[in-house]
Amino acid sequence: MLKNIFFFFLVSVALYSCAKNNEASSESGKDYYPLAIDQYKIFEVDSIHIESALDVNDSAHYQIKEVQDSLFTDASGNKSMRLIRYKRYTSNDSWSVEDVWTMHINNSTAQRVEENIRKVLLALPPQSDVQWNRNAFNAMTSWMMEYESLHEDYSINSLDFDSTITVVFEENNNLIARKYGHEIYAKHIGMVQHEEVILSLNDFTPIDENLTWDQIENGTII
Fold it and tell me: End-to-end CA distance of the chain, in Å?
């Protein structure tokens, strides 16, 4: 029986295309969320979904390709991008359309609408003393964000990025739940890594104790 669970997370960029025309300002931080037509990224994704009552414990590995398809101006007058997301399970499979999301940016925030749920990904310009609510524009529970590091180099999967910012999600770890995550954004590319863990536990488990499968009532690890 598995005793300790080590949650591996999403999203490491496997491939990307640089923006053709990038007018984003380094000072504003908009270059960490470029809205450039035809820019794309391919992510390697590992996910786990758990529903103990239904005896569900599913893990999956797949690839997601995000293609920045076309620019438009949203109802608030903000520059926006249509984002087409494709999915496949192996490099031998054909891509199929998974979702169509939208990206939005203004002088104070970078946002993304996922399945009609608007999330605030970045506060602009990036500053170490800034906090913001990721769910400020949707009906989900408040989840506060802040910057852990600014303008630092970072390497992943043999790719080197000379300037990145790291966003950490407010931790909510207690006897009956685990909730935390982080994202890394690279200049002129956008998000290159994402981790999100949301678990409900079926008994009281000390925060510093490793979890076992039978202690998890339900949850998702991405």
Answer: 23
